[in-house]
Amino acid sequence: MENQFFIDSEYLSTEALAKKHRLETDPSSRRNHMEYMPGMEQIESDVCANVMEHMNSYDYTKYSVNDVKAALEHETCTIEDLKALLSPAAEPLLEEMAQRARLETSKHFGNTVYLFTPLYIANYCENYCVYCGFNCYNHIKRMKLDKDQIEKEMKIIADSGMEEILILTGESRSKSDVSYIGEACKLARKYFRMVGLEIYPVNTDEYKYLHDCGADYVTVFQETYDSDKYEKLHLLGHKRVWPYRFDAQERALRGGMRGVAFSALLGLSDFRKDALASALHVYFLQRKYPYAEMSLSCPRLRPIINNDKINPLDVHEKQLCQILCAYRIFLPFVGITVSSRESAAFRNGIVRIAATKVSAGVSTGIGDHESKYSGKESDGTEGDEQFEIADNRSLDKMYKDIASEGLQPVLNDYLYV
Amino acid sequence: MNNNDKLIIGGHEFNSRFILGSGKYSLSLIEAAVRDAGAEIITLAVRRANTKERENILDYIPKGVTLLPNTSGARNAEEAVRIARLARELGCGDFVKIEVMRDSKYLLPDNRETIRATEILAKEGFIVMPYMYPDLNAARDLVNAGAATVMPLASPIGSNKGLATKEFIQILIDEIDLPIIVDAGIGRPSQACEAMEMGAAAVMANTALATAGDIPMMAAAFRQAIEAGRKAYLSGLGRVLTRGASASDPLTGFLRD
Hints:
The complex is a heterodimer of chains A (417) and B (257). Chain A has 16 helices and eleven strands. Chain A has helices spanning 14-25, 47-56, 65-73, 79-85, 94-109, 147-159, 178-191, 204-212, 227-233, 242-246, 248-254, 271-288, 317-330, 344-350, 369-374, 395-404, and strands at residues 112-122, 128-129, 164-169, 194-198, 217-223, 234-236, 259-264, 293-297, 335-338, 357-359, 408-410.
């Protein structure tokens, strides 16, 4: 069963539709996704080759229950152990994995759970990524907040008590350029203790500029580490360039960022291989930049505006839990973020096992925090959402729910130095 | 126990030799843990106290307990210095525990940067308690840099593995004139007791409590173990026979003059 991603909008011109169809059906109409575009910085790094070597040779059918048991008995989880833990053979041992994961989480993080919220400041996008609500052929309300609007949104969020913010944009350099994002970071430093970014990948000097503006963490999702599959899903735009995206975290660290976050979008491709590659991306980069703080996310595909049939296919909650336990056992020191794509019940459960950070008070739309937080009638000038969320708990509710699980919610554990 | 047996750090006297961590368990348990531990010093991360209004960890620390702010998050001496100064601005007093880590996986301290930060902060009047990897040369440098104590790690932080660096901590105890406070890796009361028997001046623990089923009860267990170890050290430990019994006929009995 495959997702049906292609949706035609009646608002597209004949020419646009023709181009869209050509991109979808004729691979030769698409540019080489492994070739850098002008202006994209190319760095020397062996991280990608290391990750790919393991991912390409990973045959998860060859692992047995005994391999999984052995992995769980080892004090230090090796790459081979990780491969066993991510294999189908581990599914009957999920409870044992969860017990071990919980132990590792408590050793490194105690019972703390960090809270943050995302703030989308623009949803313009120049890419055609077939699964994404922001893709350039999807007919949605586009919007870019100006400085006053950004500040208004930040005030509302800060008033709710939130101290960590993740600033997001659609991937459009022309509509949301680096200096625009930099201004948003400067504003965010006024209202929040910690500022993270989830924007299109940029060059090292641009990361340095954004760091100077107040951001210290950069999240880039590789979507899928299978570059052939990636090519079939990202048909147009700068995001199509797979290797430039892969090296984004390394450029961010070279630009002075304290931490970087990683993920595949589970459900796009073979999730076991993508999970392995995500963990190894962290592993090899940590060896090279040992001072950097690393974290992993685990988003699954969600329905989008104009296509409510998109779903994460074979990545059910059980598989997601298995992946997160494997991440935790292999990388006990990394942060693990579980977003509002997942249900309240799943998030309540997973923070007791492996997750260390959850979002609350989430909107993936543009400029709608006032209506969402206060219940005030929307004035209709809001930008549409990137995807549907599953857990819409407010900060207050999330805080109470975490505390009632016997865990300690933490709003800030960070200093900009 | 001898009432005159005080732990003295930077001219301040303490009766308790158990330093408590605060960062890994529920804020609501801090007060009970401090009480049952009999602790007089509690550490807290400055970055964690760098919060706005809701549930500031500072509000949960009982009055009369000495705050020991730490510089976790610092990756070099300059960052540690900046964080220490911020701690002072936040009203955390003059004590500071230097933590400089350039490794996010094991959180092992960087001795060289720690020495540099100690030198700067000691000159600024801080009572500097540096967390370090137990290396005698580095410990001597810390003494010369103006440290008030030396805090060697027992094993990797959070590992609960106990005195993996025992031999090297013993060397510090034997050679360094400042109080040696064993920090990080102590997982159970018996290990804390052993460190105290060796002559450590105090023990610090955080994860060992945080991962316990009953945190205040574990705090009490550590308190008793640390007191027991201290008594054993002060009383002069008896000889431990390493290989069988000693011969009743002395080997040197043949010597005549």
